[in-house]
Write a structure and sequence with these properties.
Blueprint (H helix, E strand, L loop, with lengths): L2 H8 L1 H25 L7 H21 L20 H10 L5 E7 L3 E8 H20 L3 H36 L3 H12 L2
Antiparallel strand pairs: 1-2
Length: 193
């Protein structure tokens, strides 16, 4: 489908939103895959925090626009779903000892605590985003936007939000938690130059 046909099908603003979202999706997928290799070492949590935060900005844009409604009443086949299990397993390995956390089912309707895993959240988001990206790459912008918007509200948005909270909490603990003697010495040094 030519560029003008793509734009005419959804309008210029939505075409721009679709292309911007696709670029953000690619960046997220690249980052998660790179972290899963284990080559980033100590910067992994910071890099993930940035990637998840940016993805949530993208999701907020999708959530802020009117519902995108595809012309067809069925979703065209986007091809086989990607196998995210190797990435999930690699992330779990990279995040060993930090992966599991307590999650709330739904803060409004069901405050029950369940087990969460950062590796599960990150790859679940990746799978949902990749699904929409396959529609985008075929030139079906309406279907891509519909999928990203729907799945942001129903699945990847909540999972990314949970992952963001865990990543921020991990970084906070790693950087701010110090033993009492170290804190006392630093406080004394600050007060008595």
């Amino acid at each position: 489908m030519g560029e003008s046909n793509r734009t005419e099908a959804v309008g210029e603003d939505l075409a721009r939103l679709a292309d911007t979202t696709a670029a953000e999706v690619r960046a997220y997928l690249t980052t998660v895959t790179e972290v899963a290799t284990g080559r980033l070492d100590s910067s992994s949590l910071s890099v993930l925090l940035l990637a998840v935060s940016q993805t949530l900005v993208t999701g907020a844009r999708l959530g802020a626009v009117d519902d995108v409604v595809p012309a067809r009443r069925f979703e065209p086949d986007a091809g086989p779903d990607p196998d995210v299990d190797p990435v999930r397993a690699s992330l779990a390995n990279v995040l060993e000892g930090l992966d599991d956390y307590a999650d709330v089912v739904d803060p409004l309707t069901n405050a029950a605590l369940v087990r969460g895993a950062l590796s599960d959240d990150l790859t679940s988001v990746a799978a949902d985003l990749e699904h929409g990206l396959r529609h985008h790459e075929r030139g079906d912008l309406t279907e891509a936007l519909w999928w990203w918007q729907f799945s942001y509200l129903s699945s990847w948005g909540p999972r990314a939000t949970a992952a963001l909270r865990v990543l921020q909490s991990l970084l906070s603990h790693l950087r701010l938690d110090v033993d009492a003697d170290t804190a006392s010495d630093a406080e004394f040094d600050a007060l008595h130059p």
